[in-house]
Amino acid sequence: MKKMKDKLDKLNSRRILIRDIFDKNIKEIEIAGWVHNTRELGKIKFLILRDLSGIIQITATKGKTKDEIFDSITKISRESVIYIKGKVKASKQAPGGKEIVPSEMITINKAEKLPIDVSEFSKTELPKRLDYRFLDLHRKRIQSIFKIQSTISMTFREHFIKKGFIEFQPPSVISSSSEGGTELFKVKYFEKNAFLAQSPQLYKQMVACSMEKAMTITPVWRAEKHNTVRHLNECRQMDIEMAFAKTMDIMKQIEEVVKDIVKNVLEKNKKELEVLGVKNLKIPKAKYMTFAEIADLMKKHKVKIEEDDLSQEAERKLDEIFPETIVFVYDWPLSGKPFYIMPKDENPNAELSEGFDAIYRGMEISSGGQRIHLPELLIKRLKAKGLNPNNFKSYIDSFRYGAPFHGGWSIGLERFTQVLLGLENIREGTMFPRDRDRLIP
């Protein structure tokens, strides 16, 4: 046991990944990973070993390989974690053109009978796969989704840091609703009632009005009792807020960052896109239209929309008419926007707002606009929405001491992943989803 521990400790300090075998001229190797598959062909046995960087074939031949290794290769269960020592040889038949002839094999942790199918063409239904998400994450397809999601969030962060934005961390426990409505998760906070934040909205405005440019990637919670393929009860939002910004200024920020994200995904995640079968992804164009123009367009195509909102059918139709295009819909009816969105041209009696939605690949990816920075107008809009201004006193007061006009928006990380990759269900793009039925794992 001590000898094995010493070997594994040594391996951990200078671990070689499978891709290194193909990238470098390595003759002898010590490596560890997961058993992806095994098969037997007469006097030859094969084991496919996998790690985060790829796969390699282990080939054992009866009479040439140690008996204990040859006998155990097809007995070891799939997804077991093993250590292999051996020589690297060229092989035209092996995946990638190289294989390892083993001289030593150690089982680090034997996998029990698998409760779900972890093959690349898994037939296990999504709910059961999510029950065993930690095992579902072994699949190359699922790993590809989250490698791309990592590129999305990293690009978002780097894009705005380069533009001089300050990254901040908003609170997750708040005293009242951020956006109105009653769909909040209530928590007990010592002797007080509190809520899980449904948005960083109020706090990012406070930061922007002091530090001008604010950005965050933060979890939010919404206690809406839906069960759709595009909604979650916990998600991560990519938010920005800018001082001295009007609606067009902040819409341009979305256009630029989405183009940057898609560009980086196309450059950095070619293998992952191939695994997922995503072939038609292109850096998008942008189209700017008023809500009234969209309403007229939908009428021509006989698609119904509400007076102050777009239907899912309308969002899909926009994708048909303007493929691979971010469609910005502005001059949105004020009745369809939250209390903090500025009325058109700062006119308290306006019917339109400075709010907008961004539609991409048939789905809304963002909603935002210019905010109200005038305390008395903010109080008026709160009352119009049936909300008590006393519950927002500290928020209102933050605009009494030198607050500039400002605006911002939010993009849901999981929904953007779903839209970009064409996933049928947002839960596919959520590592550990939370909805009204799921609290584990």
Features:
single chain, 441 residues, alpha+beta, OB fold (Dihydrolipoamide Acetyltransferase, E2P), BirA Bifunctional Protein, domain 2, 2 domains, 5-stranded mixed beta barrel
Give the helix proportion (percent range).
Answer: 25-40%
Would you list the SSEs in sequence order as H and E? HHEEEHEEHHHEEEEHEEHHEHHEEEHHEH
CATH architecture of the largest domain: 2-Layer Sandwich
The description of the largest β-sheet is:
8 strands, mixed
Number of strands: 16
Radius of gyration: 27 Å
Secondary structure blueprint with pairings:
Elements: H1 2-13, H2 18-23, E1 28-41, E2 44-51, E3 54-61, H3 67-73, E4 81-90, E5 98-109, H4 126-131, H5 133-136, H6 140-162, E6 166-167, E7 173-174, E8 186-189, E9 192-196, H7 201-211, E10 213-221, E11 234-243, H8 247-268, H9 270-276, E12 285-290, H10 291-300, H11 312-321, E13 325-330, E14 355-360, E15 363-370, H12 375-384, H13 393-397, E16 406-412, H14 413-421
Parallel strand pairs: 3-5, 6-10, 12-13
Antiparallel strand pairs: 1-2, 1-4, 2-3, 4-5, 7-9, 8-9, 10-11, 11-16, 13-14, 14-15, 15-16
Helix pairs in contact: 6-8, 6-9, 6-14
